[in-house]
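subagent[fold] <- orchestrator: predict structure for attached chain, return tokens only, no commentary.
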Amino acid sequence: MTSLAFAMPAEIVDPSVVAPPGDLDSNEPPMESYQHLIQMLLLLESLELFWKERTDFFAAGNLTIYFSPRQLKSEHFRGPDFFVVLGTERRPRKSWVVWEEDGRYPNVIVEVLSNSTESIDRGLKKQTYQDVFRTPDYFWFHPETLELSGFHLVDGRYEPLSPDAYGRLWSAQLDLFLGVEQGQLRFFTREGELVPAGKELAQRAESAERRAESAEQRAALLAEKLRELGVDPDALK
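subagent[fold] -> orchestrator:
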């Protein structure tokens, strides 16, 4: 996968301004609803697990991105519901401060729509992510209507992404599909496999354990039957 890091244009950074500390706290309010919180955590957890061996990305949800040209905390900041930055160090951060991160903006942003925020997500935020952030992949998802839309940056403009036969949208940045599964926005591999979250991984492990126990029990019963017939099962190995 090609990692693209988009730097802040040099002409909008004033070198005379002394940068504040890079560990600025996030100013984001609580999530819009419990549904929003679960959706954001699901995306974050599944991607973190899927990329558990990688150290070259940062993913977060409901975290402030500071991007003031004057390097001020009090102006020019946004808090996407979920975003991923590629080509950076994988470590905890209180917020994403563009001027402390080599001018990098998110490569992928996902907004979870609600009746009170969708007009901003479709309008002002989309414009900001296109013109200022220059984020290559932008998606929004409405958990009530299940609307999923995505855009890819082409020559500085967002072009709508076309869904595949399953209604999923491709993220070239993540090398993954985004699609709706059981009313939730999920990641899918290029082959169409669901990217599991922690609960699903635990269920898979439990299922595999049950299958192993069942196979062991069947083998024990077969061995008992063979002994009843006067056959030593160990001699058949």
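orchestrator: received. Logging for downstream: Residues 58 and 112 are 19 Å apart (CA to CA). DSSP finds four helices and twelve strands in the chain.
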